[in-house]
Design goal:
Layout lengths: L7 E4 L5 H12 L3 E6 L2 H11 L4 E5 L5 H15 L4 E4 L14 H28 L3 E5 L12 H21 L5 E7 L1 E2 L2 H9 L1 H9 L7 E2 L1 H13 L4 E4 L3 H11 L2 H25 L5 H6 L2
Helix pairs in contact: 1-8, 3-4, 4-5, 6-7, 7-10
Length: 291
């Protein structure tokens, strides 16, 4: 029997991509789900696919603490508590520090950092009651910087440290805290960047070895579900991302930065020109649902 059978799992950013894949896999393993997103149509679709028996969907913005507290309250009323919370909602921006739209930067920080805090703050009392598990979705970007992705990297490094501090605060209460680090996953976030920015595709192609390859949403979902079931401290996808964690000090040296610097002088100006032509620093889909 699965380790999540009959467990109550709250997932943010659950309507598409990795969040939706994890939700489907957990549901198949017997979990009871609380799924939130700002994308009402997509959330309604996954809710319809999974059925109402073991699923509660709630349109909620992670930037709004009161909204997330309401979700946690509804989860407790419906299922009696919360065993697992997966703080998954996240967005990315386009453009260098000189070119990224400051409002887009603020939106990213609000979703990717404040949203993680709000999600955990709202669900944590219920998770503590059940001596449960918190999974913070960070990124390989917390280990290795990428030009043109400074806001995203800063946010993901921030939530990794948030997870580390949270672990110290709640371990004695029987709560385990994990942090997930993925490289390039074939989600709408990556698909939109590839579609909007030819320079992004070229940047991936310029990365050494397997570092520019994308991994399927299915493979990522499988890794995250295993992490949740085993209450892992770290979840990596692909597995070799674990090596980047240990190489983190080296990657910030001149030697570690050298492979990336070879293409920055050409690719970054191209990216900024493409962003300027687009007239936005967010994907069209993200811009629409984050209004």
């Amino acid at each position: 029997m699965s380790g999540v059978n009959q467990k109550v799992v709250l997932i943010t950013g659950a309507a598409r991509g990795v969040g939706a894949e994890v939700a489907r896999r957990l549901h198949a393993n017997g979990a009871q789900l609380v799924l939130t997103d700002v994308d009402e149509a997509a959330l309604r679709e996954i809710g319809s696919d999974l059925g109402e028996d073991r699923v509660l969907t709630a349109v909620a913005d992670v930037r709004d603490l009161a909204a997330m507290q309401d979700v946690a309250s509804r989860a407790t009323d419906r299922f009696g508590g919360i065993d697992v919370v997966m703080a998954n909602a996240g967005i990315s921006t386009y453009g260098s520090v000189l070119k990224v739209d400051p409002e887009a930067f603020r939106t990213l920080v609000d979703v990717n950092i404040v949203g993680v805090f709000n999600t955990v703050r709202a669900a944590l009392p219920a998770v503590i009651d059940r001596r449960g598990y918190v999974l913070i979705v960070s990124s390989a970007a917390a280990f290795a910087a990428s030009p043109g992705l400074a806001p995203y990297g800063a946010a993901k490094a921030g939530v990794e440290q948030f997870a580390n501090a949270l672990r110290l605060e709640v371990t004695h209460l029987g709560v385990d805290v994990g942090c997930a680090h993925m490289l390039w996953i074939d989600t709408p976030l990556v698909q939109d960047a590839k579609s909007d920015l030819p320079s992004f595709r070229r940047m991936l192609g310029a990365l050494p070895g397997p570092l520019g390859k994308t991994t399927s949403v299915e493979a990522c979902g499988e890794a995250l579900v295993k992490g949740i079931e085993k209450r892992k401290r770290y979840v990596y996808c692909p597995e070799y991302v674990a090596v980047l964690r240990w190489l983190k000090p080296l990657l910030a040296t001149r030697l570690g930065e050298a492979p990336v610097l070879k293409s920055v002088s050409t690719l970054l100006p191209q990216m900024d020109a493409e962003v300027e032509a687009l007239g936005r620093s967010l994907s069209a889909r993200t811009q629409e649902v984050q209004k």
